[in-house]
Design a protein that fits this description.
- With 127 residues, the chain is of the alpha+beta class.
- It folds into two domains: 33 residues; 88 residues, Immunoglobulin-like (Sandwich).
- Helix content is 23%, strand content 39%.
- The strands form two sheets. It has a four-stranded antiparallel β-sheet with strand order 4-3-6-7, with no helix packed on it. Strands 1-2-5 form a three-stranded antiparallel β-sheet, with no helix packed on it.
- The longest helix is centred in the N-terminal third of the chain and has 29 residues.
């Protein structure tokens, strides 16, 4: 008799556990089309490419930005002074910057998105 009761309790427990898992799987299948955007870092989706590097006459800055309110591109010299600045209006563009007036040395090109400094790249100017 004890074995029979133990068997019934075990079957009931396993059935109840399986039913709970089945409901969770069913809920998961119904919600597969929903995307959790809270874990996506939109700032990592912004890209910037510079070429040629090292540069002597000009440099081309190819950028792509998405999901932003304000974007700015700045070039700094090695002591931190801004030598070029441009507010970006388009989401994707190529900008040609003349660097023939820049002194030889190391420069940094930074993309600022919504007040945050992102994607800083090194530029070497060598005339």
């Amino acid at each position: 008799m004890k074995r029979f009761i133990l068997l019934i309790i075990s079957v009931f427990t396993l059935s109840f556990s399986f039913a709970n898992n089945y409901v969770e799987l069913s809920d998961l299948e119904n919600n597969l089309v929903q995307i959790d955007t809270s874990s996506v870092n939109f700032y990592e989706l912004q890209t910037i490419k510079l070429y040629p590097n090292p540069a002597s006459d000009h440099i081309v800055i190819d950028y792509e930005i998405i999901f932003v309110k304000e974007a700015k591109l700045q070039i700094y010299n090695s002591i931190g002074a801004v030598v070029f600045s441009k507010v970006l209006k388009d989401k994707h563009d190529k900008i040609k910057v003349l660097v023939s007036d820049f002194k030889n040395g190391l420069y940094f090109c930074s993309l600022q998105i919504d007040g945050k400094l992102l994607n800083t790249r090194k530029i070497i100017i060598n005339h």
